[in-house]
């Protein structure tokens, strides 16, 4: 039996205003005293109560004067810098600091404060307030060495039906709450029907994507103010070599783009924002061998142009194609360019002429340099990834080989990035779908952690991992190449993009993202030691070359007969073959050991692909 009560009311009585009126006070309840109960109580006369408003202090010689404390709010904006000074631009802050130091009020204030500071310094030096009295009794807690590990905490799949590659990431500058992912297809003449041209900004809390970028983009860079600068190289099989920028506050359509005739001639593979007073400057690099500077307030033409011609003749036909860029705010006038030919160019924008802007060249890779990035703790040290190795360089050695490098891997290395939390930790991704975590402070020959990227140990999207959440193992493992990798500012979460457009968010163990005691000093010592070693090797190599040149000048020139040289090389070649066959227990080169046809040395005739 269901018990319910229906309350009905006419529609005209809903929403009627309340009417209030004034009336005199009236007594609603009056409880008279009970004389029979008065005998149970004892009258107290007089009735008083004492209270102490001030603090109770004992009369003793160690008591000091109690200061008057008040709580007030402070509006602290941009570290105390004026609005027209960008706190991240070292040139503007240095210029403003010099202007303030020339003022008379600054000198007078420093003189006044110096006497007070000197008094307190002398007072602190009188007694060592940091003296350890029980240092011997304290037991040092040994930190348990945690085994390096990582787990997939979330993934974002390309919502489009026709899958594309996740080629570049850019974290939102505000607490990394969003991730911009550039999607495009790098396959030659990819004309698949139904291919979308949207790239997405993913909200990490809701696992939702917004198609703000209405073009197929290879790289994306988020502006600290909220704008977005992607560079679209391909669209429906056509090259789009001009930078375009979006403002997420204005929707998903481009705000402005550069004209085709004044832009790059090849796809744009890198774009970076520049710290400036207006916050509207950026530069881009392309495989056409040009680096162009832009101001988004006037995208009709580039403000500067640099041709990456190593001969410094500014000929575009001799230029090296730029395939990766890196810019660090710690060095506002310098940037690095990784080329298709394996050369890394260190450029200085403040040089007077364009050829002088290419300051140094670093050669060592035998393939394209897919990634180049500076160390966040030591800006003069940078990391590059290309061919089968990742290499560490320093700008203190001009035109020198790398000071450190990884071993040669079987698959290609496609991207690399430093950890923003630890100076010696960096991440690399390979074409077999493997992510390697290197810690050069402890292991130089093998990675500290190597794992296949896949949805194993995955939480549901939108659920942050915690001690109460149990990961459910999943047997699926992705063998797709991992094309890109990027780390959050705290170094705990790294994003990896696969060839099928899936973005994996990996959470690494605390030991790989927590800065330990003296770790920065030890890393600096390691880099300095390797730099000195490489410098010594360079000096010895120069001395040997000079001795060989002097020896060649002292000896008379002997003209060698090309035929004799060829004959000797031919004999040496066949002698090596005979020795190798004897070592393997095989017969002479002309001997037939099998039952095959004559002239084929026991092998079957070559067959075509269709047979």
TrEMBL record:
GO terms for cellular component: microtubule; outer dynein arm. SMART domains: WD40. Keywords: Cell projection, Cilium, Cytoplasm, Cytoskeleton, Dynein, Microtubule, Motor protein, Repeat, WD repeat. One of its GO terms (molecular function) is dynein light chain binding. Residues 601-611 have a biased composition (Basic and acidic residues). GO terms for biological process: cilium movement; outer dynein arm assembly. It comes from the Eukaryota. SUPFAM superfamilies: WD40 repeat-like. Belongs to the dynein intermediate chain family. Its main location: cytoplasm. Residues 584-611 are annotated as: Disordered. This is DNAI2 protein. It is found in: Cytoplasm, Cytoskeleton, Cilium axoneme. It holds the Pfam family WD40.
């Amino acid at each position: 039996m269901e018990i319910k009560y229906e309350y009905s009311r006419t529609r005209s009585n809903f929403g009627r205003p309340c009417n209030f009126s004034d009336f005199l006070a009236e007594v609603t309840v009056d409880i008279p005293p009970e004389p029979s109960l008065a005998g149970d109580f004892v009258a107290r006369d007089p009735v008083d109560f004492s209270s102490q408003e001030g603090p109770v202090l004992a009369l003793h010689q160690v008591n000091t004067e109690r200061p008057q404390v008040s709580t007030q709010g402070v509006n602290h904006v941009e570290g105390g810098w004026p609005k027209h000074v960008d706190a991240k631009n070292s040139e503007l802050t240095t210029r403003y600091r010099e202007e303030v130091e020339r003022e008379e009020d600054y000198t007078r204030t420093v003189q006044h404060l110096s006497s007070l500071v000197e008094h307190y310094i002398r007072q602190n030096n009188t007694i060592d307030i940091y003296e350890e009295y029980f240092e011997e009794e304290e037991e040092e807690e040994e930190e348990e060495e945690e085994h390096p590990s990582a787990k997939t905490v979330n993934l974002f799949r390309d919502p489009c039906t026709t899958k594309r590659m996740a080629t570049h990431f850019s974290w939102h500058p505000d607490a990394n709450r969003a991730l911009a992912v550039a999607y495009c297809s790098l396959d030659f003449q990819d004309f698949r029907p139904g291919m979308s041209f949207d790239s997405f900004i993913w909200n990490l809390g809701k696992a939702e994507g917004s198609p703000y970028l209405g073009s197929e983009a290879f790289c994306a860079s988020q502006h600290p103010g909220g704008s977005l600068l992607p560079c679209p190289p391909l669209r429906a099989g056509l090259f789009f070599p001009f930078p375009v920028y979006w403002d997420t506050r204005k929707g998903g359509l481009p705000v402005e783009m550069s004209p085709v005739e004044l832009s790059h001639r090849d796809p744009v593979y890198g774009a970076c924002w520049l710290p400036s007073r207006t916050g509207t400057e950026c530069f881009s690099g392309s495989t056409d061998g040009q680096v162009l500077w832009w101001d988004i307030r006037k995208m009709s033409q580039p403000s500067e142009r640099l041709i990456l011609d190593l001969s410094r003749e500014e000929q575009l036909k001799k230029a090296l194609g730029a395939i990766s860029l890196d810019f660090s705010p710690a060095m506002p006038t310098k940037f690095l360019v990784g080329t298709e030919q394996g050369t890394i160019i260190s450029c200085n924008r403040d040089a007077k002429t364009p050829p002088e802007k290419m300051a140094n060249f670093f050669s060592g890779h035998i393939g394209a340099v897919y990634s180049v990035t500076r160390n966040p703790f030591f800006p003069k040290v940078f990391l590059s990834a290309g061919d089968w190795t990742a290499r560490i360089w320093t700008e203190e050695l001009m035109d020198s080989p790398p000071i450190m490098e990884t071993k040669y891997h079987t698959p290609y290395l496609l991207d690399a990035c430093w950890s923003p939390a630890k100076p010696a930790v960096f991440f690399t991704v390979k074409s077999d779908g493997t992510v390697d975590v290197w810690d050069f402070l402890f292991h130089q020959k093998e990675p500290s952690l190597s794992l296949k990227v896949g949805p194993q140990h995955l939480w549901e999207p939108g659920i942050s991992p915690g001690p109460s959440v149990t990961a459910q193992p999943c047997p699926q493992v992705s063998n797709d190449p991992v094309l890109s990798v990027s780390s959050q500012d705290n170094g705990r979460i790294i994003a990896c993009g696969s060839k099928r457009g899936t973005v994996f968010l990996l959470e690494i163990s605390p030991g790989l993202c927590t800065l330990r005691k003296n770790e920065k000093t030890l890393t600096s010592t390691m880099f300095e030691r390797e730099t000195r070693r490489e410098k010594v090797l360079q000096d010895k190599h120069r001395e040997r070359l000079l001795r060989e040149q002097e020896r060649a000048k002292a000896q008379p020139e002997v003209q060698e007969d090309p035929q004799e040289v060829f004959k000797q090389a031919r004999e040496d070649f066949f002698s090596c073959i005979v020795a190798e066959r004897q070592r393997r227990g095989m017969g002479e080169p002309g001997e037939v050991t099998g039952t095959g046809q004559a002239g084929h040395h026991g092998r079957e005739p070559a067959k075509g692909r269709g047979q």
